[in-house]
Amino acid sequence: MEKNCYELQYPRDNLYLSCYVNESLNYRYHWHPAEYEFQIVLCGKQEFCRGKENFVMEEDDIVLVEPNAGHASFSTTLNTRTLVIRFSALAFKPFLKKGESFSFSGFPSGQKTRKGPRYTRIRFYAARLLDAASQASPYAPLAARGSAQLLLDP
């Protein structure tokens, strides 16, 4: 599978993003020191490990991984694809007191929650972000930034 990775930078807001569609294959444990990561299962099924948690993710499920949290996944069905969006933790710095960190709650989604309004909204803005990032239009960076900011609204 060809992987197009889109990198977006908004230095005035300390917002640095990357997004791509990934084929979930093998178990590769890793972490990101200064980035959050959303993973949205587009199709298929995968097992996901985040820290000491293990869970199964199905189509439309979303997980968020905080900075420095070890994580890995592997496909349990053929052709499992995920949308991965990583964004800088520094984007929240203006909103936090010294020594605080930003924390999202309610992740991962699951069978009872994946179709709820919060997760539907996240999938919508994530799709808009990927679409805008892939466009050559001079206005695409503006659309991508707006989608990213709405995506990050906890």
What does this structure look like?
By secondary structure, this protein is an alpha+beta fold. The protein contains 2 helices and 8 strands; from the N terminus they run E-E-E-E-E-E-E-E-H-H. The chain has helices at 117-133, 140-151, and strands at residues 6-10, 15-23, 35-43, 45-50, 53-58, 62-65, 71-75, 81-88. The strands form 2 sheets. Strands 1-2-8-3-6 form a 5-stranded antiparallel sheet, with helices on one face. Strands 5-4-7 form a 3-stranded antiparallel sheet, with no helix packed on it. It starts with 5 loop residues before the first strand and ends with a helix. The mean pLDDT is 90.
SSE pattern: EEEEEEEEHH
Mean pLDDT: 90
Overall number of strands: 8
Strand content: 25-35%
Biggest beta-sheet profile: 5 strands, antiparallel
**Helix content estimate:** 10-25%
Our measurement of the CA-to-CA distance between the termini, rounded to an integer number of angstroms, reads 32 Å
How many helices? The count is 2
**Radius of gyration computed on alpha carbons:** 15 Å
Uncertain segments are: none
What would the principal axes of the Cα set say about the shape? globular
Lateral arrangement of strands in the main beta sheet = 1-2-8-3-6
Please identify the structural class as seen in this structure: alpha+beta
